[in-house]
Amino acid sequence: MVSGPSFWGKQVLLQGNEAMVEGALAAGCTFFAGYPITPATEISEVMSVKLPAVGGTFIQMEDEIASMGAIIGASLAGAKSMTATSGPGFSLMQENLGFACVAEVPCVVVNVMRGGPSTGLPTNVAQGDVMQARWGTHGDHPIIVLAVSSTADCFDITVKAFNLAEKYRTPVIILSDEVVGHTREKIRIPHPEEIEVVDRIRPNMPPEWYIPYEDNSRGVPPMGIFGDGYRYHVTGLIHDVRGFPTQRADEIVPFLTRIHRKISQNFFDILMVDTELADDAELLVIAYGSVARSARRAVREARERGVRAGLLQLITLWPFPRQILEPYLKKVRAVLVPEMNMGQVSRELKRINQGMTRVETLNRIDGNLITPAEILVRLLKM
Amino acid sequence: MAEVTKLIHKYLRHDKKFPHVWCPGCGNGILLGALIRAIDRTGFEKDDIVLVSGIGCAGRLPVYVDFNTLHTTHGRALTFATGVKLANPRLQVIVIMGDGDAMAIGGNHFIHAARRNLNLTAIIVNNNIYGMTGGQYSPTTPYGALATTAVYRNIEHAFSIAELAVTAGASLVARGTVYHATMLDRLIEQAIRKRGFSVLEVISHCHTQFGRRNKMGGAVDMLRWQKENAVRVEKAAEMSEEEMAGKFTIGVLVDRDLPIYTEEYRKIREAARRRLGAVK
């Protein structure tokens, strides 16, 4: 089945995890470091086969901490880099993930979610890491988190994740889940000219003029890479515009403000949602990941039975797409949030809802997927 | 003297990075001088050198020198360095760590980096204590010594960094001291030139946190201790076990040629191209 470095322009039958590799390669990924963990392992396996064929490098590190460190190092030396893991491994990556935020190192981290906490339910599906993706590392920092729901998503959203990482010099987390990762579907891989690939902006001034962390209108400084003549200091300490550690309030505040601003002022470039039958909906289902597909079916069946239901699928989970959701919250009769955790996105939704509408939750934490029938039953009762 | 000044002007970052964070009399300054002289002798361009460090006193070293510098998280310097080297094998990657950094939190990364044999240089400054954090016992604090977390004496046994590196499979393993400064220059140069993973353990002193607490005197006394207790590897071979008691060896412990990761990986790329029929 795995027959080439990519299947440009072809229809192929792929697992979500495999499609993610194709998406990464299409986006220009040349470095992958990882540690085996169910249900993310196939990403490592396929990377180990395909990356060397396109001149890239795959390495299996001694643990997830090392994997995260290695992809940061590789990115600083110019590679588009990626790692993939599942819940427990994602926990181990958090410290270095914070380093990537502060040092503004583009990279992509995939978390194929499984049941937790701890070793939990390694082969079962869950969506318990939404808040860990947002707040797992320490301190205040922005982050971009995207959720995939199908094999096609795994390709498309992975390309987008690399683009956002490069554009905003930030780690981007992709939340997948066991069902998305292991479901085989037919997808069409586009031709190279059909996809947009973004590369980081590199400095073009004389090296002695380069100020590595200087603010600009985008809030994203051009990125020098090791060996290209723009020597500078990279550190996890809060740094001044030249990259050197600082404890001066007049340098700390502008820096931390800028790394938040570069994400917040570009909300609408980062926010992605998908809607179906949502414009005239009275009942709105807000879902993400594999559950969004159950919700899609449920919404269609509800319509057949005369219930004006609609679906709003979240692709960008963080920053939370408040600006997109608010208009819907103002006009629908009620919202249903089905998710495979105790209520992580529904909690965020209630936070922004502020009494605009009724928010109901449908939670499942037994390691099984929420079915279309379960959602439909709830919709018919609402 | 003029030569020294020239080197300082060539390699140090002049604006805003000084005064440095180290205590007066610290061995890190001697190491930094030796490192600059060694790099100068190897003739590598500044742009080709990447200096990576972890956290701690020794971890602050890269900030002062004008290379591509990377100050990572505690214990993880070798993992970042692995990524840098794999993404661009032409870069000369030198990693500076302290004993707590490399042996405790980074111990696992250290043995696996040695086993993997990337063409990197790891310099570990061993001052037997956590200096920056305030004098807690480290994996190289001697049995029976005092520390802020071992006020009733340390009951753990110390790692021998260099011997651990030999066992883990490093290509070149050497040990030097900051007292033997000219020898240190040469050992660093040899470690950088070595093709494969090279480890240099540098015996240094923390008179502020270790010496004072253990009644070993100031910086000068501790340097004298290094002078009196270091035995060259060649001479140690002729000495009996009793004569070597309490002493340690300096010099090159192991120098062997093993397959280098990045060169092996080139073969993997060729095999993958053949298997997948790609012509890229």
Automatic annotation (TrEMBL), chain B:
Record-annotated Thiamine pyrophosphate enzyme TPP-binding domain positions: 62-202
Entry superkingdom: Bacteria
Keyword terms of this UniProt record: Oxidoreductase
Any one of the GO BP annotations: cellular respiration
Gene Ontology molecular functions: oxidoreductase activity, acting on the aldehyde or oxo group of donors, iron-sulfur protein as acceptor; thiamine pyrophosphate binding
Pfam families: TPP_enzyme_C
Protein's UniProt name: 2-oxoglutarate ferredoxin oxidoreductase beta subunit
